[in-house]
Specification:
Structural class: alpha+beta
Helix content: 25-40%
Distance between the termini: 36 Å
Order of helices and strands: HHEHEEEEEEEHH
Number of strands: 8
Length: about 230
C-alpha cells in the first residue's frame, strides 16, 4: 500500500486533536499558504461517495487512515448544531454527539464528531469517520472548511442494521438535540447552591438534600447517556 508522501521514511502523519484544529483546520480556513500543498486533498460532495469508492481514489496517510478537507454547503451550515447524520447516495453516516476539543489552557477551540457508515441496504460496515470543526461562534461563514478522517476498523464484523440499532440511533439523535438543555440544567443545579455562604453553619434540611440528590442523579444520568448509547 502506497502512503501519501508526508515526510522522510519513519515519519508518520499522526496529529492529535488539538494539532488538527489549531494547524490543519484553522489554516485551511484562514492561512492556506502555511499548509503543505496537496498533502490533504479537497473533496466536494464527500458524503455522496461510498467510503470504499472514495478511499480507492486517494493514498492513505497511514495504514487504513485517509484525511480529507470538505467545504460545508449551506444546508449543512444551517443544520449543523442539531444534525449529526449525513445522508448520501450510497448510505448514511450515523453520527454521535459532538465532543469539545480543548487547548493547553483548557479553552475550547473546536469540536469533533464520530460517525459510522451504514449502507443503503441497512448493513453496518467497518467504515468510520471523525469530523473536525472550528468553533463557529465568531463568523460561521469564515469556517466553511472542516477536516474528515476516514478509517476502517479491523475487528468489527459485518452485520445488518437491526431495529435495535435503529432505536439506538433514534436515542442518539435525541441526545444530540438535548445537549444545550442538559448544560442549562446542570448550570441551574450548580447555581442553586450559590446562596450558601462559606463557613455558615445551619441545620441540615434532609428533605431539601434528598430532592437535590434526586435532581443531580437525573441530570447525571442524561449526561452519562451522551457517552454510552446501548
Amino acid at each position: 500500500m502506497d502512503f501519501n508522501n508526508f515526510g522522510p521514511p519513519g515519519i508518520k502523519f499522526h496529529p492529535n486533536d488539538q494539532e488538527i484544529i489549531e494547524f490543519y483546520v484553522s489554516n485551511k480556513n484562514f492561512n492556506t499558504h502555511l499548509l503543505q500543498p496537496n498533502l490533504i486533498p479537497d473533496v466536494m460532495n464527500l458524503y455522496d461517495f461510498h467510503p470504499q469508492q472514495l478511499t480507492d481514489q486517494y493514498s492513505p496517510m497511514n495504514e487504513n487512515e485517509w484525511y480529507f478537507y470538505y467545504e460545508k454547503d449551506s444546508s449543512f451550515l444551517s443544520q449543523n448544531n442539531k444534525r449529526s447524520n449525513r445522508e448520501g447516495k450510497n448510505g448514511t453516516w450515523l453520527g454521535d454527539p459532538k465532543k469539545p476539543i480543548l487547548n493547553h489552557q483548557n479553552i475550547e477551540i473546536g469540536f469533533k464528531r464520530s460517525l459510522e457508515f451504514v449502507e443503503s441496504d441497512e448493513k453496518l460496515t467497518q467504515w468510520n469517520m471523525i469530523e473536525y470543526h472550528l468553533l463557529e461562534s465568531n463568523n460561521i461563514q469564515q469556517c466553511n472548511w472542516m477536516l474528515c478522517k476516514i478509517y476502517k476498523t479491523k475487528s468489527r464484523e459485518m452485520k445488518t442494521f437491526t431495529n435495535e440499532d435503529k432505536e439506538s440511533n433514534t436515542k442518539r439523535q435525541k441526545l444530540v438535540q438535548e445537549e444545550p438543555t442538559l448544560e442549562s440544567e446542570l448550570n441551574l443545579y450548580c447555581n442553586s447552591f450559590e446562596d450558601v455562604e462559606v463557613g455558615q453553619e445551619s441545620l441540615p434540611n434532609s428533605s431539601t438534600e434528598l430532592k437535590k440528590d434526586d435532581e443531580f442523579e437525573t441530570i447525571f444520568a442524561k449526561f452519562e447517556n451522551l457517552f454510552r448509547i446501548n
